[in-house]
Every structure is written in C-alpha cells, then in structure tokens.
Amino acid sequence: MTAVDVQALTAGYDRSTVLDGVDLSIGTGGALGLLGRNGVGKSTLVMTLMGLVAPTSGRVLLDGRDVTGLRPDLVARAGVGLVPQGRRIWAPLTVAETLALAARGHGRRAAAGRFTIDSVYELLPRLRERHGQQAGQLSGGEQQMLAIARALLTDPAVLLLDEPSDGLAPAVVDQIAELLQTLRGEGVTLLLVEQDLHLAFAVCEEIAVMEKGRIVHRCPTPEFRADRATAHRLLGVA
Amino acid sequence: MTGWLAANLLSVLNGLAIGALLFVLAVGLSLVFGMMDVLNLAHGALFLVGAYVAAALVGGGASWGAFLGALGLAAVIGLLAGGGLSAMTEPLRRRSHLDQALLTLGVALIVAEVLQIVFGDDPLAVPAPPGLDGSVSLLGAAYPTYRLALIGVGAVLAVAVHVLVERTTLGALIRATVADREMVAAVGVDNRRVKIAVFAAGSMLATVAGVLGGPIYGASVGLDSTVLILALVVVVIGGLGSVRGALVGALVIGQIESLGRALLPDLASFVLFGALALVLVLRPQGLFGSRAGAAA
C-alpha cells in the first residue's frame, strides 16, 4: 500500500513557483528522508501536504484517497500529523493543555487512537515531569518533544517532520532518532525533512533529494551513503 | 494623599466605571483581532446598536423588565451580527488587514446611517433601572449608584472572562489560536467555527456594553466612532488577544478619560494619545501582547 502519493504537485506564493511538479510516494510504514539545500521547497512541500499552502496543480493521495487542496483540519483528520519547522508550539499553554487540545482537536475519541495522552507521556516521560509548565518556558529539546507529542495525539498514519533536529544538541538529536524509530515500530509512516544527515540516515530507509522544486534523486539510504559524489553534487557536503 | 483622594474620588470612580465599560467593549475587539487577524471596525457600531436598543426599550420609562429585556435583545442582535460579520470577512481571509478593515468600516457606516434614519439626530437618554437611578453619599459627595453598579458588573465580567480564558479547555483553544492559528488547524480544529464563535461572543459583548453604557452616554450620532477609538487604544496598549491586557488597558484609559480630564482639562486628548504613542515606541506588541501578535 502507498500511504502518501504526491503526483506532479505545484505550489507557490504570489507569482513565484516553489514546487515545480513534485512526484513522491511513501509506502505504508515507510520512512523517507528528504534532503536538499535551503530554499529548494522542502518546507513548502510539507506545508502543502498539510493543507496550509494551497497547491496550484497536481494531486495528493493518502491511502488512495484524494486530499488535494483540503483544509488543514480535514487533512489532520484524514491522518496526517505535522511537526513544523521552528516547532511552533503554543507558548502560553502548559504542556498538559497543549496535549489536551491536540487530543480533542482531531475529533475522534482519544481512546480509539493508538496514541493517548498517557501513552505519549510513557514515550516522553520528560513531558510528564513538565506537564504544568508553560510551553514557552521549556528547553528547545523539550519544545521539540512537545511538538512531536502534539502531532502524535492527532493519531496520524503519516507524520511530517520539518527539521526536528534544528538548533538541538547532539544528545537531544539522538533521543529524537530513538523516538522516531519507536514510532516506525508502531507503524507510523514518516516524511523527515532534514539538514542533519545523521538523523535522516539513522531513521529513514530511503533518501530523496530536492532541487528547485522537484525531486531529483531517490535511492535506499545505504546506497546514498556510499555514493559520496552524488551527495556532494546535490547537497554540497563531503 | 487622603486630601487628594477625597478631592478626586469622583473622578477616580468615574474612571473605573468607564474602564469597566471599555473592558467589556474592548475584550471582544482584542480577541477577534488577536485570534482571527480581523480588524473589526464595526465594533463601535455594535456598541451604538446596543445603546439605541436600550433607548428604545428603556427610554419610555425605566423598569428592570425593560432594562433586562434590552440586555437580552442586544445580546441576541450581537450574536447574530457577529456571525454575519464572520461570514462576510471569511472570503477575505487571505487578503490584507486593510481589505477586512474597509469591509467592516463600510458595515459600520451603513449601520450608523440606518440608526440615524430610524432614531433621528437628537441624542436619546437611557434612564438607569429603578434602585440604581439614585445616588449614594461618598465622603460627603453624591455619586450615581448606577456607576458603582457598573464597576461591579465590569469586575464580575473581568473575572468571568479571565477564568474562561486562563482555566478552561475552551480558553486553551483561545490562547492557542492567538499564539498560532495554523497549528490549531493542524491538530484538526476547524478555524472557521472558532472564528464564528469568537466573532459572535465579541460582538455580543459590544452590544451588551452599549446597553450598559446607556445610562452614562445615552445614544447619539457619533458615539460609535468615539467608543471605537477608545477601544482601539485599549487594544493597542494592552496587546492583541490578551484578556489581561484589555483589562489593564481599559482601566488606564478609563482613568485618563476621567481623572486626566479633571486634572488636565486642556490636555486630556494629548494624554490619551501620548500614552498610546509611548506604548507604541517602548513596547509595540502592547503591555501584555506576545511578539508574534505584534509581528502579525
């Protein structure tokens, strides 16, 4: 089965085209690492998949169901969770309020989902310790954990993560890698946009590279790691 | 100090009464702008609708039945008008603030014009309900009972709104929407329904404030723009989408309007806009606003 199937997707802001015909599919339970230089359209792709940026043409299918151009709340209810760039936690809310709002927001009874507030606290015990604190007071790593927990409580089949390692210490990035591997074990399909190659390599079995609004390269992770010339050409890294 | 207070007690109390009224008016304006990014310039016209409802129902002879009836009718009109304004601004949600402001300004002008045609040019008085229409003696001076009651109503509403926003699940939704509306949508909440609810509740508070303010301001042509400007100043000083900011801003502006006019009669307008300018220079996001609110 295909969890996410993106076909010839284009999108942009005002008159500039950012996504210029993206074709991308991820099998159910798979994890794809999406790499690319700054400004090639990775974040726009994530926001378009979530329904927060309107596509100008092309299609997005979730489990075969057409969700192209749906409102973000309907995309969320169709089973897509978002961990956005910059985390975008609700700073004035406490951890407990954030999780309660996310659990109620998606409209299904929390007990019916794989993830409940209790099970998320099991996964991320640090958040349970901090449950009464305002999200804005948390450390960067804790805020990232909260952003992931918030997305999980919408009970996503597909989780979109936009640079979850951004600005975090290596030890915290390791924790996030471990968490994402646990989520894979739960059967969640992952699209991981990253600059941190180690995190992408640790979590994803396939790597795709974006350039100028298109997917220009895709291969299994071990193959990508072995092919240093291609990595250097596409990403400018050694 | 005690001598100063005795001499200016009435001005201070008047300032509290005006502040209480301004809070009820401004909190809706602040939440609609802070949560939904819509600058509703029809908010003052809603206040005026409430004032004329009070004048029409209570003007003939004050009774509690008429006064409560006016409050109820104004509340229903406010709810419906808020729903209508929410629907009208929805097609403009991806456009600039200016487009939405122009639309609501147009609505405000039409409403004010219709009210003038229906009720005429002359100011109408609204008597206070029985029992509150007298005055009480405070430090040897007579003070209108209704204004004291208004201070009490304002305090109760402030506490109620504070508890609602800071302590309840609905309040968490309100604060989250002020902080980052897109992320609220991304957890499955339909923003349009939140917008209708906030618009309806905020507009209801505006029309109710018009009735409550009736015994002080009456109902007259031009009152809508006067209160709209005061409410906008309150929102800018307090910070967008902040209930505490609306309360503090309203109390400050209430004192400037009352005590400021009493102590510096020639400079009151300068003090009002001077306070606004000071806040804009030193803390553009408002006293209690978040940086994100200022950026949006």
What portion of residues of chain B belong to β-strands? under 5%
Total domain count of chain A: 1
- For the CA atoms, what is the radius of gyration of chain A? 17 Å
Rg of chain B to the nearest angstrom? 19 Å
Helix content of chain A: 25-40%
Class of chain A, according to the CATH hierarchy?
Alpha Beta
Q: What is the H/E order of chain B?
A: HHHHEEHHHHHHHH
CATH superfamily of chain A: P-loop containing nucleotide triphosphate hydrolases
Gross CATH architecture of chain B: Orthogonal Bundle
Low-confidence stretches of chain B: 292-296
**Backbone structural class of chain A:** alpha/beta
| CATH topology-level fold name of chain B | ABC transporter involved in vitamin B12 uptake, BtuC
CATH fold field value of chain A: Rossmann fold
Strand content of chain A: 25-35%
> How many H/I helices of chain B?
12
Largest sheet features of chain A: 6 strands, mixed
Main β-sheet description of chain B: 2 strands, antiparallel
Membrane topology (chain B): Multi-pass membrane protein
Organism (chain B): Pseudonocardia ammonioxydans
Subcellular location (chain B): Cell membrane
Pfam families (chain B): BPD_transp_2
Q: What would your notes on this structure say?
A:
The complex is a heterodimer of chains A (238) and B (296). Chain A has 238 residues and is of the alpha/beta class. Chain A has one domain: P-loop containing nucleotide triphosphate hydrolases (Rossmann fold, 3-Layer(aba) Sandwich), CATH 3.40.50.300. Chain A has 10 helices and 10 strands. In chain A, the strands form 2 sheets. Chain A has a 6-stranded mixed β-sheet with strand order 6-7-8-3-9-10, sandwiched between helices. The longest helix of chain A has 16 residues, at 170-185. Chain A is globular, with a radius of gyration of 17 Å. The model of chain A has no long low-confidence stretch (mean pLDDT 92). Chain B has 296 residues and is mostly helical. Chain B has one domain (8-295): Orthogonal Bundle (ABC transporter involved in vitamin B12 uptake, BtuC), CATH 1.10.3470. Helix content of chain B is 76%, strand content 3%. Chain B has 12 helices and 2 strands. Chain B has a two-stranded antiparallel ribbon with strand order 1-2. Chain B starts with a helix and ends with a helix. The model of chain B is unreliable at 292-296 (pLDDT under 50). The chains are: A alpha/beta (238), B mainly alpha (296). The A-B interface holds A 50-52, 71-73, 76-77, 81-82, 84, 88-93, 97-98, 100-102, 104-107, 150-151, 153-154 and B 169, 172-173, 175-176, 178-180, 182-191, 290. Chain B: InterPro entries: ABC_transp_permease, BCAA_transport_permease. Chain B: Its main location: membrane.
